[in-house]
Amino acid sequence: MTVRAFSAPGKALLVGGYLVLDPQYESYVVALSSRMHSIVEFTKSDQLKVKVISSQFNNDTWEYTLSENKLGNLIPSEVNGLKNPFVEKTILNVLNFFNKEKNIAKYDITIRIFSDPGFHSEEETTTIDNGSKKFNFHKKSITKVPKTGLGSSACLVTVLTSALVSVFLKDSFNVKDEKNLLLIHNLAQVAHCQAQGKVGSGFDVGAATFGSILYQRFSAELINSLPSNDDEKGNYIEALVKLVQNTDWKFTHDRIHLPKGLRLIMGDVNTGSETTKLVAKVKSWYNENMPESLKTYQEINQGNCDFITSLSELNKISEKDGIISEGYKSILKEIDNGEIKNEILVKIIKAVLQIRSNFRRISKKGSVDIEPAVQTELLDNVIKQKGVLTAMIPGAGGYDAISIIATEDCKIKESNDPVFKDVTFLDLKQEDFGLLEENASDYKNLVSNI
Ligand SMILES: Nc1ncnc2c1ncn2[C@@H]1O[C@H](COP(=O)(O)OP(=O)(O)OP(=O)(O)O)[C@@H](O)[C@H]1O
Ligand SMILES: C[C@@](O)(CCOP(=O)(O)O)CC(=O)O
Questions:
Q1: Closest ligand 1 atom to Cα of 152
Q2: Which atom of ligand 2 lies at the shortest distance from residue 202's CA?
Q3: GHMP kinase N-terminal domain: which residues (predicted)?
Q4: Which residues sit with their C-beta closer than 6 Å to ligand 2?
Q5: Nearest atom, ligand 1, residue 200 CA
Q6: How far apart are CA 96 and CA 28, in angstroms?
Q7: Ligand 1 contacts CB of residue 201 (under 6 A)
Q8: Rounded mean pLDDT of 137-157?
Q9: Vertex 59, ends 191 and 47: CA angle to 5°?
């Protein structure tokens, strides 16, 4: 039996929060070394069945059979009535895509999901380390375990999509092939958007697929205009195939990475915020406060663009001749000494302060906790530390997490300063790569027959 395994990284949206919901604005998305994994095996069968097992979460299992509706579209139903919208919409979209000729091959498919420790709270867990991979096992089901906000649902959808696509494309499926990657991305965006209730920009699926990227979203209309899968009038399969295979989504996903000598530190703040509620509040503040709200967005965008271009300039200096020059080393030393004078570094610091002060204005005027006072105090303490270049609240902000750009020598993670007592520094780093094919034997003892 062929067993294949895939993994996709979590994300942190360093700049571009809220604005990225509009295709005109650029965002800077860092992929993280915390990854979600899928291991897939299948056998020929007389009925199409998909079982998804998430053994780390109290052995959560969702088992779907598929029936055809009047139009010949496949409808998944979970045999025990259990719900996982992300799993269900992924199965629905990938299987209907491969049912375009209405003669999909029938397989009994089993997919095991594993997620790296960074995605969830480590409280009350047991760790299993098989020598190649290390995973935490929780006593509770997935919906009961606190998450850290690294985009677990986007990673789940991306690795599940890859696992299912690999069953139908077999040897011709290669995650190093840009065309295959685009297919995974488009299918995963459709499934994630439907499962999530159409609120996101898709930057998380973008990072799960392509890694660290400059991201500008596709038009929301692309997915919103799909007919319903059980609509008698619209042809879902035809529209889906046209959308994922034959449509230019006109989105940006240019690969990026932090300049040499700088690293990303993520701090989990452990209280959590609901992105959908924050987005709804910001949207209503924006619409009710034109044209001032547009001016605020333009100021934030200026900060975002300054941040992005300055990092790119720093990259150019750091990579000259492929070696780290003495000049670049002395620039990094300024951060370690806490005496920053280099104009590119100063521009990065100013850009983030400009973004933060505008988000604080929105927080106050729109009564929405994007950068609440406790986070302001925390960030202000963080940026005073030696070795820290800048720090921000990633993504939608709120009480979830902080992101820090620091030098390799920065000691903030080891600090005993009581101002960091509520912060759990996550064991992860920035990652260039998105979706990867893994070696299935690395999951031995975690998956019974490997
Ligand atoms: N390991 C997993 N196994 C099965 N389902 C999972 C797993 N991880 C995430 N999910 C699904 O994703 C849902 C969580 O998605 P949600 O969008 O709320 O969080 P997130 O993507 O981690 O966070 P954020 O969007 O704030 O970055 C879970 O309720 C579950 O349906
Ligand atoms: C507010 C928003 O721009 C970012 C949300 O980011 P996060 O899920 O908080 O990491 C929404 C989105 O882009 O999907």
A1: 22
A2: 14
A3: 141-211
A4: 13, 17-18, 20-21, 149, 200-201, 203, 275, 279, 394-396
A5: 25
A6: 33
A7: no
A8: 94
A9: 55
* Pick from 347, 301, 312: nearest CA to 18: 301
* Residue bearing the CA closest to ligand 1, atom 3: 54
Q: Whose CA is nearest to atom 29 of ligand 1?
A: 143
CATH code 3.30.70.890 for 262-429: yes
Is the Cβ–Cβ distance between 136 and 122 less than 8 Å? Answer: yes
In contact, 149 and 195? CB cutoff 8 Å: no
Higher pLDDT, 321 or 114: 114
Please name the residue whose Cα sits nearest to atom 11 of ligand 1: 153
- For ligand 1, whether the C-beta of 115 sits within 6 Å is yes
Distance 288 CA to ligand 2 centre (A): 21
Tell me the sheet residues that pair with 447: 444
Residue with tokens 């932090």: 258
What's the complex ipTM? 0.98
Q: For residue 275, give the ligand 1 atom closest to its CA.
A: 26
Give me the pLDDT at residue 447, please: 65
Neighbours of 57 (CB within 10 A): 21
- Counting ligands in written order, the one closest to the CA of 118 is 1
Q: How far apart are CA 259 and CA 284, in angstroms?
A: 37
Mean pLDDT (the chain) is 94
Annotated domain spans of the chain:
3-255+433-443, 262-429
User: Which CATH entry fits the domain spanning 3-255+433-443: 3.40.50.1980, 3.30.230.10, 3.40.640.10, 3.10.560.10?
Assistant: 3.30.230.10
Residue whose Cα lies nearest atom 10 of ligand 2: it is 395
pLDDT band at 280; cut points 50, 70, 90: very high
76: which 2 tokens? 């998944």
Q: Which atom of ligand 2 is nearest to the CA of 397?
A: 9
Please check the confidence at residue 448 and state whether its pLDDT lies above 60: no
What does the pLDDT look like over 46-77, one tens digit per residue? 999 999 999 999 999 999 999 988 888 999 99
Residue 450 has pLDDT above 50, yes or no: no
- Residues 259 and 332: beta-carbon distance below 8 Å: no
pLDDT at 198 over 90: no
In which element (H, E) is residue 425 found? strand 424-425
Q: Which letter does DSSP use for residue 259 in this model?
A: P
Only one residue has tokens 């005993």, namely: 416
Q: How far apart are the CA of 287 and the centre of ligand 1, in A?
A: 30
